[in-house]
Amino acid sequence: MMRRFCCSFCFLASLALNLFFVINPYYLSGWKKQKLSSWAEEAAAEAEAVALISCSGHGRAYLDGAVVDGKPVCECNTCYGGPHCSLFSPDCAADVNSGDPLFLEPFWMQHAASSAVVIAGWHRMSYTFSDHSYISRELENHIRRVHAVARNAITKGKHLIFGGGSTQLLAAAVYALSINLSSPAEVVAAVPCYPDYKTQTDFFENMHFEYDGDALLLKNSSDTTANVIEFVTSPNNPDGNLREAVVSQGVSVGAIYDHAYYWPHYTAIPAPANEDVMIFTISKLTGHAGTRLGWAFVKDEDVYQKMLSYIAEAEQGISREAQLRALKLMKTILNGDGMELFEYAYKKMSDRWRKLSDIVSLSKRFSIQEVPSLFCNFFEKVRGPSPAYAWLKCERNEDTNCTAVLRAANIIGRAGSLFNVEDRYVRLSLLKSDDDFNLLLLRLDKLVTQDDDRKHYFKNS
Ligand SMILES: Cc1ncc(COP(=O)(O)O)c(C=O)c1O
């Protein structure tokens, strides 16, 4: 009896063990999958629920936005209001002051799945990566690959540094180029120039550098004792011109090439950039200005080390979440042949430029800059203009304050004096949302047709 019981027990135990080992891997892996994905699914469901909130195409609800009655609410575009952003304010001004690159938002909505990131609660909590650096090597590799696709920069043999936007790298480069000089460096930029070179240099001014204004004034300087650092913006903000350094090499201790807009979106790429210090930003490449990530390619080891120590001292490196997001965006750009973002952005910007030019061409009161068609290394053909900004000029003698002329017509632009030239010029941003751009066209069309030269002629005759 006892023997029979033992045999049956052994048989059942072995059957149970066999079943356990056969079923276990499947069961475990399924269970694990369920367990592992549940937190990600929860995060995804939360993100999707917010994305589904209807803001009538004139606003957006965000996970970290305001909450009313426990639910996130719409943040409306300028000139739109109401709980679903469906109410347009007819008297509202077209605000085209800032360079906020929201024109790319629809691209990212079309690529919602490939560009979304889920960040685990324990994602990269350390101050450093495992190689003790502050840089994701994977992101570095992807950035180099994006430049190779865009054919806009030679990155081989150059060090890469990340900064809190390119804004921080501009300051880091001035620091690195000036710190060991025996007399203070004069920091210059040819006008019209991006205002932050002056405001930032003035803000951080110390015994090593000071802002000295227009580079063109120093171009033929006989003062060979000066140490000059030149910012070169190419293409230029505000006028879109491709630029080279103007200060002679004898007095220049270095040029900082700001290539924020050196992408096929905004300009033909005649040849890949290959300067000693080149600065780029995700803000104008993907449109993610809020991510605050810029990068610099630096040839010289010593300048690179000094820029690195500036970033280490100021920040201990750039947010790991920002780097993770940037990596995802770069991967999305590189999907397929990597051309899609550039083609989309070029088409959109050239379309905007054409519409604006058509309106301005009807007027004798206003003009905008001429941007020549050029051969583009990326498109492998001659291509037309697609600048980030219109540099508008009031042509009438009495219109010395062009910003005020536009303001009276309900258009908010950025005054020429901020770019170190006369206020006869105004910068109009073409980078903002479709709502902002369409309103600009509407207001400008009204201004041009109301204000045509015949009326002006009769009024003054
Ligand atoms: C010429 C130029 N450089 C740098 C920047 C700053 O960009 P970031 O967002 O990377 O700080 C801008 C922003 O508009 C710019 O126009």
TrEMBL record:
Record domain Alliinase C-terminal: where: 94-448
Source species, domain of life: Eukaryota
InterPro entries: Alliinase_C, Alliinase_N_sf, EGF_alliinase, Ethylene_sulfur-biosynth, PyrdxlP-dep_Trfase, PyrdxlP-dep_Trfase_major, PyrdxlP-dep_Trfase_small
Key words of the record: Aminotransferase, Pyridoxal phosphate, Transferase
Record-linked SUPFAM superfamilies: PLP-dependent transferases
A single BP term in Gene Ontology: amino acid metabolic process
Keyword Cell inner membrane (UniProt): no
Alphabetized GO MF terms: carbon-sulfur lyase activity; transaminase activity
This protein's record includes keyword Transcription: no
Matches recorded under Gene3D superfamilies: Aspartate Aminotransferase, domain 1, EGF-like, alliinase, Type I PLP-dependent aspartate aminotransferase-like (Major domain)
Cofactor needs: pyridoxal 5'-phosphate
Pfam families associated with the record: Alliinase_C, EGF_alliinase
Domain Alliinase EGF-like, residue spans: 38-92
Family the UniProt entry places it in: Belongs to the alliinase family.
Protein name in UniProt: Tryptophan aminotransferase-related protein 4
Organism: Sesamum indicum
